[in-house]
Records
---
Amino acid sequence: MAHDGISPRDSVREAVLITEARTSVEEQHRARVRKYLFIMSFRIPALVLAALSYGAWQNPWIAMAIVGVSIPLPWMAVLIANDRPPRTADEPSRYGWRATDSTALEARSHPVVNLDEEPDFDRRAISNPRATS
């Protein structure tokens, strides 16, 4: 029993409204399929309309214009149907994981080679490292 006078059975019956819940993957898929079918439903009627317009006016330019408009429809349908819902502000960016203040080079000092000066090393040590005294 609950201490505030409400039984567990009553608390289960109360509906909880989730306003921040995202749409499920299945609902997103159904919506994308509906978009795809809606756009592609114009393809066959456009081809039939092109044939009818050529038969009615005997003008191939009108028929070709209608066919030309229907050519990019499958490409557009796939692009629009595969588009994901807009990114929310709380969704993390996949690229922003790298720290922006990291340096490419180490902070310690490095020896500088000056080609104008004569090097001060023993040439015998370079040709035969074991021959150094």
Note: The helical segments are 8-13, 25-40, 43-57, 60-70, 73-81, 123-127.
---
Amino acid sequence: MTAGGTKSFAFDDPSLSSTCEGCGASMHRAVGEALHGGRRHWHVEATCDCGNGWINCGSDDPPPGVRDALIAAYGWSTVRVGAGSVGRGALLLKCVREVYGGSLAEARQRVDALRASGVQGTQVDAEILAGALRRAGFPAEIMSGSREGGAK
């Protein structure tokens, strides 16, 4: 673990340098994401024992390599809705489409997953979805840390 409790690990993304420009050594990388004011913020940082480093950060959806690294580091978080969603399918569909966009068919698949095994994503993905569900009056549960894949 690095300072602040961020897990440090290696991952392969061609858009993110892994070799120090100063000394040529492999850099130590850490990745993280947070939810501030309802908006996702992500970062990737690299440091070298020689003192060089860089940081890449942004808001909203992270690049695919960063998203994969977040899941590798922290595992999947899963969101499920409870029995309070029965009979409220139209509102649940609307809520899911507001979070994910996409077609009605895709929203129906996510609703079915929410009611069954759950919808998986990063911790912030889960917080965004669960927050939207709770604001709409649905009982949403988040389970964190699974390394197994599933409905996304």
Note: Strands lie at 28-36, 39-47, 53-59, 76-81, 119-121, 140-146.
